[in-house]
Amino acid sequence: MSVVFTRVDDTLGAFALRTLDPEADAPLLHGWVTHPKAAFWLMQDADEAQVIEEYRRIAAHPHHDAYLGLWRGEPAFLAERYDPAHVELVGLYDHQPGDVGMHFLCAPAGTPVHGFTRAVIRTVMAWLFADPATRRVVVEPDVRNTAVHALNAAVGFEVVGPIAKPEKDALLSVCTRAQFQAAAGHTAAAEPAAATRTEGAPA
Fold first, then answer.
1. N or C: which end of the chain has fewer CB atoms below 10 A?
2. Closest by CA position to 22, among listed 43, 45, 40, 49
């Protein structure tokens, strides 16, 4: 398991993403994805074996991958990246070259940390845009997930509109590199100082 990206948040400190081990990380992930606050993750009834199976499937997929997010060195969130031309959104929207799909899930916390979820999504977005091939990030949260809609707007996403997926009615939204940078209040030149994509790591 190797760290592929690091970012230091001005307020909350060090965040990182590392490769996910479906077997070793399954007990932890099972507690996250079946928590009541993760209802929109659609794995509420999964047992640990099903969690292993799902993340083995993602690990083997050529157009989908998952990473464990760390905060101050401890597991704190989950991030998935996918190619929407092949996964999740095939035939459901106007795909453009450089589009990258994203999911993220914060671990349930006994004591909420102010600004934590926003710091996580900023970290995930910075990771995706650290790849120069990424031109837009595409998301498709459940239309009822108003909390994540607000977070998406805060980091620069623009709503395209509702789409019907087999498992849910989703709100398609997109964010360009320029929109993310404008929302974050920094320029492209400043970004490398705050975030580092590990050389040789998977994009």
1. N
2. 49
Does residue 194 contact residue 124 with C-beta atoms inside 8 Å? no
Task: Decide the pairing of beta strands 136-139 and 99-106.
Answer: parallel
For the four alpha carbons of 155, 171, 130 and 26, in that order, the dihedral sign comes to positive
Strands of 13-19's sheet in order across: 158-164, 169-176, 136-139, 99-106, 74-82, 64-71, 13-19, 3-9, 195-197
At 125-160, the pLDDT tens digits run: 999 999 999 999 999 999 999 999 999 999 999 999
Mean pLDDT of the chain: 90
Q: What distance in Å separates the CA atoms of residue 192 and residue 130, rounded to the nearest whole number? A: 8
pLDDT per position as a tens digit, 54-92: 999 999 999 999 999 999 999 999 999 999 999 999 999
